[in-house]
Design goal:
- The complex is a heterotrimer of chains A (323), B (172) and C (499).
- By secondary structure, chain A is of the alpha/beta class.
- Chain A has 13 helices and nine strands.
- In chain A, α3 packs across α11, α5 crosses α13 and α7 crosses α13.
- Chain A is globular, with a radius of gyration of 21 Å.
- Chain B has two domains: 64 residues; 74 residues, no CATH class.
- A two-stranded antiparallel ribbon of chain B has the order 1-2.
- Helices cover 76% and strands 1% of the residues of chain C.
- In chain C, a hairpin with a 6-residue loop joins β1 and β2.
- In chain C, α7 runs parallel beside α22 and α9 runs antiparallel to α18.
- The C terminus of chain C is likely disordered.
- The chains are: A alpha/beta (323), B mainly alpha (172), C mainly alpha (499).
- At the A-C interface, α3, β2, β6, α8 and α9 of A face α6, α15 and α20 of C.
């Protein structure tokens, strides 16, 4: 039904804006749905990348923030929109890889039912703890957790959030899935209670915690990526610290509804790559502690593989998570 | 004063239809919430479940509603006043029409394309305007067009909000 | 004194021509958007955030701060003029502010709000400059248990807000709490009381609820009573507060500044309690509490000052700890981050010109607000003279666009209409919507903090009494409740018997 509506609308707009259509894709502003409120990490990456993509496309990329249900509301809207290339979305690890296991009634299929465009940026995940916790490195922390799980409190920003997803993976890998989890509305309040020592540890994106680590108000055990982050060169990787299986990154990526015209996909991929090759854009992303995706991951196939890889990795831990 | 006391001793009867209505309203809402929350686990003190607070709030609502009912039988108070459907239908109807047409919708066999602010704007003002008993057609139409234009200029152009303007005509 | 050299640095930054202009434009645009019914500071900032992206970081933040104050004041303007609060803190202003407008004293209410806000802003700026760093510790003293007790105390304030029956006020608070539990459970992801509607999965949006039960319901009430709505334009008194008005507002304003400023420092959303607490205090110490709710100027001066003081001290946790205490501050973090400044405990030492420039611009922003708004008072008051048959369709279109823009969700508009019907029903049943909104705002936080505190304490309620701050707050809560209940209970009986 929705398709016919859009069909009529599209036909009308074609008829009325006939001259513009001749120029091919894109002949009007492209809406990029950000499934979170303005000002959040995903929104910031979308705005930085979208800004440069608009220049390449020759049409404005309009950011539309449609928040709700851990980002799945906005992604659902984008994935059920007309696949004409004018509605795309900037999602993240949660909305594409974790969502099928987290939200049983999900209205889109991120593994097979979407058109991936490319990865736009990644932010490493850190395991951080209150500054006066006895353990001083990952090994002793892991040992202490395994020995006395009931002594620890983990903080996260609500079911479906990046901190919840990544910490659930960690707890699954450590074999303590039922560890006391304290839910907060957003990472800000969770971080506040970590700084004041009310809770013991959390997993979060580098951009939220880097300044606190530098200031010494909390301590970091490890960064869950292959390489150390230039923003925090002193923090070891999980491999170095003795927990090599814990590898996870909170990436952001662009996708659209399945069935988009090839021309639109190609132009969007091209615009994304030009944006990520632009020095000024790159610098803005690096300043956030973000990782610039490899050339292979900036393609539809590469991004599609990343979604599937992380979905497979997260699936068992998320399904076993206590609800 | 003494009259009231005498009245009070003369047994129960409805002395305030407003309070009685309010009490029944609270009890009905509490009942609805209890039904909706019946499947949610209450949890334990150590790990409060999702159902604990909705259920307890609903119970409190019900008790307070009961108090209101009792009050309405014991003390004199306000009576229920008339209900004006004209306002409800046109004002709230206008808002619903805005919600349905701004991005389009489809319910069953009925579907409306996204009309955008260009159409939805004047529509809201015209429909809601009908709620006033001193409505004047000419004035309302001119005002609606002027206000909608101002809104489009302000929200769509000056502030560049991502609100559809007229997708069926302009494609944006 | 370090503070003076720092402030000098700050004013040096803020007084540059460009930054002054940005501050002015921010305040102006913020006021204009914030004054639209239904559009509160959060909506205004998220709507206007993108226009600051092209500026340098200091300029962008100064402009955003201007937008914030402007929106805050603009929200109070709508609360006074058309009885629609744009955010939780403006709810209190509707109580007496709108009554004043109905009595033809809209100008005085607006003027008092502007002057009160300015005074509060001045004090708060000094407090931030002088005590910002040490006060930070206060934010860290508050864990989930303290927070829960604070919310309980806030709910007790709500009882005092009641204009009529205390029993009905309790009903509304409880109903507000119940409504706040609608939506997906934070811990388990289970949907609660949503009827399976996806749009309710994230709970009821504050603006949707407030607009419905205040805005739409008010329109319906006015349409019903043509005489009542004409009172507003029948007689317009003096435009600005006179000497006696000012004399009456000085003490409420100072008390409000203290209360709002203190609560604003707390993380979470302490600032939201400021106006409620201030109103409670004013109503309790007034010689004639019955004037409240009928256009008492102290009921505008106190809460408005508290509101603005809290709005400013809410910057303390952000600037000194790098942790946003509420949604508005979270947007500020977004704004800083997009400019490459990641807020943290070191912003003060690493970006002193930004830190002190912002503080200086707070004061300048407050001054600008006064300059912009006092002349506008006349204009706003004139708007009230627009015939109601034209005014309400205009209010309605602004409401619709405003609500739609908050989440870009068309369904939100339809929900607002449903809450309008709900609000109309509440009016008919003799309920006051203000306590409902407070219960709603505090309910979410309360549940979250209760559950957090109990998980941390492993299920022991003693934690709320063991911790001294928490116990103290609960004690205040009990005291407020007793003070509120005793006289009103006897009053209720008097009212009933003298009828």
């Amino acid at each position: 039904m929705k398709k016919t509506v859009f069909g009529i609308a599209a036909a009308l707009s074609l008829a009325l804006a006939g001259t513009a259509v001749a120029q091919g894709y894109p002949n009007k502003p492209v809406t990029m749905i950000v499934p979170f409120a303005a000002g959040g990490p995903t929104d910031i990456i979308a705005r930085i990348v979208g800004d440069h993509m608009s220049k390449t496309l020759g049409q404005q990329i309009v950011i539309e923030n449609v928040a709700g249900a851990g980002g799945t509301t906005g992604i659902t809207r984008a994935m059920t929109a007309a696949p004409d290339g004018y509605t795309i979305a900037m999602g993240h690890l949660g909305t594409f890889s974790a969502a099928p296991a987290t939200y049983p009634g999900l209205k889109y299929d991120p593994l097979n039912g979407i058109q991936p465009i490319g990865l736009a940026g990644g932010t490493p995940i850190l395991i951080v703890a209150r500054k006066n916790l006895e353990a001083n490195d990952l090994k002793s922390f892991v040992a202490a957790i395994k020995a006395t799980p009931d002594k620890f409190n983990e903080a996260h920003a609500g079911l479906g959030s990046v901190s919840w997803t990544t910490c659930t993976l960690l707890k699954g890998q450590l074999g303590v899935p039922k560890l006391n989890a304290v839910a907060y509305r957003g990472t800000g309040p969770a971080l506040n209670d970590l700084v004041s020592g009310q809770i013991d540890f959390m997993c979060d994106q580098i951009v939220s915690v880097a300044e606190q680590i530098k200031a010494g108000t909390i301590k970091a055990f490890a960064v869950a990526s292959v390489q150390r982050s230039p923003a925090l060169p002193d923090v070891p990787t999980t491999t170095e610290a003795g927990l090599p299986e814990y590898q996870i990154e909170a990436w952001n990526g662009i996708a659209g509804p399945k069935g988009m015209p090839k021309e639109a996909v190609d132009k969007l991929v091209d615009a994304l790559n030009k944006a990520l090759n632009d020095e000024a854009t790159k610098k803005r992303l690096l300043d956030l502690g973000a990782v610039i995706p490899t050339a292979a991951d900036r393609t539809p196939d590469g991004f599609g593989a990343v979604i599937k890889r992380d979905a497979a990795k997260l699936d068992p831990a998320l399904k076993n998570a206590p609800r | 004063m003494s009259l009231n006391k005498i009245e009070r001793s003369q047994g129960l009867r409805i002395r305030s239809t407003q309070d009685l209505g309010a009490g029944v309203f609270m009890i009905v809402l509490a009942g609805l919430a209890l039904v909706l929350a019946r499947d949610l686990p209450l949890g334990s003190l150590r790990q409060i479940g999702p159902g604990m607070l909705p259920t307890s709030f609903a119970v409190f609502c019900g008790i307070l509603g009961l108090f209101l009912v009792i009050t309405s039988l014991r003390f004199d108070g306000e009576q229920l006043s008339g209900w004006s459907w004209r306002g409800v239908i046109f004002v709230l109807g206008a808002a619903i029409v805005f919600g349905l047409t701004i991005r389009g919708f489809s319910i069953g066999p009925i579907s409306v394309p996204s009309l955008g602010l260009l159409v939805s704007g004047p529509l809201v003002m015209l429909i809601s305007g009908l709620a006033a008993d001193d409505m004047k057609w000419k004035e309302l139409i001119i005002f609606s067009v002027a206000m909608s234009t101002a809104c489009i200029l302000l929200f769509k152009y000056a502030l560049s909000l991502p609100i559809p303007l007229a997708p069926w005509l302009l494609g944006i | 004194m370090d503070m003076f050299s720092n402030l000098a640095l700050g004013f040096g930054v803020a007084l540059s021509f460009q930054n002054l202009a940005l501050c002015f434009v921010g305040c102006l645009v913020g006021t204009l958007i914030g004054v639209l019914p239904g559009v509160g500071p959060i909506a205004t900032i998220s709507i206007l955030l993108p226009i600051t992206f092209g500026l340098d970081p200091t300029g962008a933040l100064i402009m955003l701060a201007g937008i914030y104050y402007g929106a805050q004041y603009g929200g109070s303007t709508t609360a006074i003029l058309v009885n629609i609060p744009g955010e939780a803190t403006a709810v209190v202003t509707t109580l007496d502010g709108h009554q004043m407008a109905k009595q033809g004293r809209a100008g005085i209410a607006l003027g008092t709000a502007a002057i009160g806000s300015f005074v509060a802003g001045c004090f708060a700026t000094v407090v931030i400059a002088a005590l910002g760093a040490p006060l930070t510790k206060m934010a860290l003293l508050f864990g989930p248990a303290e927070y829960f007790s604070l919310m309980v105390m806030g709910l007790c304030f709500a009882v005092v807000l009641a204009r009529g029956s205390i029993l009905k006020a309790f009903c509304m608070i409880m109903l507000g709490l119940l409504l706040s539990t609608v939506g997906t459970d934070l811990e388990t992801g289970q949907e609660r009381l949503t009827f399976g509607i996806p749009a309710l999965a994230d709970g009821i949006d504050f603006s949707v609820l407030a607009m419905g039960i205040f805005g739409f319901a008010e329109v319906l009430r006015n349409l019903e009573a043509p005489e009542a709505r004409d009172v507003v334009r029948a007689k317009i008194g003096r435009l600005l507060p006179g000497w006696s008005d000012i004399k009456q507002s000085v003490m409420p304003c100072l008390r409000g500044t203290f209360i709002g400023g203190t609560l604003g420092i707390l993380p979470g959303n302490g600032a939201v309690l400021g106006p409620f607490a201030s109103y409670t205090v004013e109503k309790k110490i007034a010689k004639d509490p019955s004037r409240f709710g009928k256009g008492a100027i102290e009921g505008v001066a106190g809460p408005e000052s508290a509101n603005n003081a809290g709005a400013q001290t809410a910057f303390i946790p952000l600037l000194t700890l790098g942790i946003p205490p509420n949604a508005v501050m979270a947007l500020m973090v977004g704004a800083m981050t997009i400019h490459g400044i990641i807020p943290g405990p070191q912003v003060m030492t690493r970006n002193p010109e930004l830190f002190w420039g912002m503080i200086a611009s707070m004061w300048i922003g407050n001054l600008m607000l006064l300059i912009i708004n006092l002349p506008l008072v006349g204009l706003w008051v004139k708007l009230l003279q627009v015939p109601y048959r034209l005014m309400f369709p205009a209010i309605l279109i602004f409401c619709c666009i405003g609500i739609y823009s908050v989440n870009n969700q068309p369904l939100d508009v339809a929900f607002t209409a449903m809450f309008g019907l709900f609000g109309y029903l509440l009016i008919k049943l003799g309920f006051e919507p203000a306590p409902l909104l407070l219960g709603f705002v505090l309910g979410k936080l309360m549940e979250e903090k209760l559950r957090q505190a109990l998980i941390i304490s492993r299920g022991s309620f003693v934690t709320f009494l063991e911790r001294p701050i928490s116990a103290g707050l609960l004690l205040v809560a009990v005291a407020v409740l007793v003070i509120a209940l005793l006289p009103s209970m006897s009053k209720k009986r008097d009212e009933v018997f003298t009828e």
